[in-house]
Amino acid sequence: MLAKEKFHPDAVAEMRRDLAETGSPESVEVLWVGRVDGEGMIVEVSAAASGDATMVPALFPHMSRGDAVIHNHPGGDLRPSGADLNIASRLGNAGIGFLIVNDDISQVNVVAAPIPRKELILLDVEELSSVLEPDGALSAYMAGYEARWEQIDLLQMVAASFNSGSPVLAEAGTGVGKSFAYLIPAIRWAADNDERIVISTATIALQQQLMEKDIPFVIDLLGTAVKVALVKGRGNYLCLKRLEEAADDDELFSTGDGLEGLKAWAGQTATGSRSDIPFRPAESDWGRIRCEADNCPGSFCAHFEKCFLMKARRKAAEASVLVANHHLLFADLAARRDGAGPDETVVLPPYKRIILDEAHHAESSATDLFSASLSLPSLQRIFSRLLRRKGRTSRGLLPRLAARFPMSSEKFIGEIPPFIDAARGRAETLDALGRDVLAGAAQIRLKGESGDLERTRLEDPMSALRKALSDLVGRLADSIRDLAEDDADPDVEALALESRQTCAVLQEAVSVADAFLHRDEYPDQVFWLESFRRSDGNQWLACHKTPLSVADVVREAVWEPFGTVVGVSATLAVGGDFRHWKSRIGAERIPREPLEGIFPSPFDFASRVLLGIPTDGPSPEQPEEWESFLIEAVSSLVDLSGGHALVLFTAYSTLRKTLSGVRERLGSDGPLLLAQGDDDRGRLLKRFREEESSVLFATDSFWEGVDVPGEALKLVIITRLPFRPPTDPVSEARREAIAAAGGNPFYLLTLPEAVTRFRQGFGRLMRRSDDRGSVLVLDPRIIRKRYGSLFLDSLPKTASSIKTLDGVLRDLEDFLFP
Description:
The protein has 29 helices and 25 strands. The protein is of the alpha/beta class. The strands form five sheets. The chain has a seven-stranded parallel sheet with strand order 8-9-7-10-17-6-18, with helices on both faces. Helix 14 runs antiparallel to helix 15. The longest helix has 29 residues.
């Protein structure tokens, strides 16, 4: 075919220039990405890579349905090679064209024609806004409905993002109704354009709210017929294959009846989801039977047709709106960035638009995903997968391979087990000796030159482990190399796949160990050790490798390939702008200018919230005096309020000391005192809500995601400004990197993170417009240090009492009991 029949003259001229610039157009291969108009003509091209068709996967994140890949064949032979045909098939399934041209761009072979883009139906912003306005559609569902103009403004910004393909960065205070503001345009867009949208959150509580309340309500409100699916990670689903293996192990090894309840549930459940188990299973039991990516034979599994995970994935493939968590979304985005096609199902089915709710967690979620760890328990799990023995009886992958290939049985159950034993021994040695490097600390960062202790207790055992693991993976790989890949027996294919997956997991462990031994070659990574305590009281060592920054990888995976990306949270801005969040998440250098807005809470904080700050308390930098003050202040405050209080800490040890002191001071006549760690988080919150006069002492995750409106919560006590511990290994490395670049790490990282956390804690009080109560801050640095103004300025205007503790108590009594 003549090229002029498929290419605009300007596109032909551009391609000829690109080839001429190579200096050797008769021998160099170039890949172009082309944009196709409504008539099927390629009107715009850009050179994307030099090389043959195998380079195409690197271009996937930057292409979508209706695009085309153009590839020149030096010499003029336009017949596709085998690699060309494989790539063309993959592109064609995604609606992307693949064309081969000759050296002077006069001839073209259309191996796969691009499927034209569907004409998009833009949102009617005024019509959608009217849903939320006075006398709008929503008012018919709610008696006494009052429009929230902040919510309407946010809806208009999100709708504009869908229409223009621009990103959105938005902060929406408590009470704005951010979920409706993004759901109304998102669901209308999905219904009108048949485009899949992912709504990603950080917490299960918000996912449940969206799935059970908000999304069904909005679908009914708009009168649309959009399918929705909640997408969970593999580890949330029961694996029937692993349950069968675990039951067999129990019978062989007499491990008790810990699985009896789970086996009974497995015979009744329709979903296989952990959240549907009517009791709380032990982590060790669930870990034996949950789905795992590196232990899944996929369609070769005997249980494939009944697989709960596959059922959930099929449901997700039929849905236009997916609700997922940040970790799952970033896992999918990472795979697409590394070469998976934009229209392929990876972790998630393909999608076009992204909404990041609770977006302030995006950096930590991405950091977790791109981190890697090595520990004795994780290695023991792999060793046990290969071989488990009792007496002369054995279970695991190796015995199954030996049974299926009896002519090679000695290779599997005779030759490989010594390699497993050697690797296990080296792992146990590293676990025992490596903890000496911690010198009693819970965490430690490895930096600079290695000292004698680190060399003898960590590096030498790590080197021995690396060699033992490498020997094991090499021996296993050699043993399975000749497994009949063309064997049509699904059992053989399943064994071959499981064997390759196990080799891959072992090789990843080798890679982590190798990185630790050559950490000076990885300046973009943080290497650190952590000690964990087992339920039996013993400790084990974890060796972590964490990216110093995720900004570049998130920019490449999220901001560059996608247009509509809505980042929204109640606490996204610091100091009135989004510079901190943008710098941490790679959004400060993106092709499209984002739409930005701060939408304050409509609640009447000025008359309904008292901010109390005692001026006579000691600083946390005087720990003994400060902890004594905490006991006195918390005791007096909760005694005055009659309970109804949430007390937030930054350290569990301080929580326990304060709890003990308050119990002693108040005695049996005081309010019910509940504490994190005494029970499951969900049951603790349920009891706190039901026992309205109780007091909950908590840390970590309780600074956010706690929604207790009404009488149960009238007092939020923030014991300390939530600065990250200076010894946190990753935070320490990131601070050093900022300083090395000439920045101020305290003002660019430490302070913004603490302000965001502080605002989350403050936000626990006012959950409804009729809530009323007080937030007490027992850290005097908020008024004594210059940076304290940034914390105070981040809050809405409230009534305030900045006096001695006695003065604050008097004002609090007048406020709570007027």
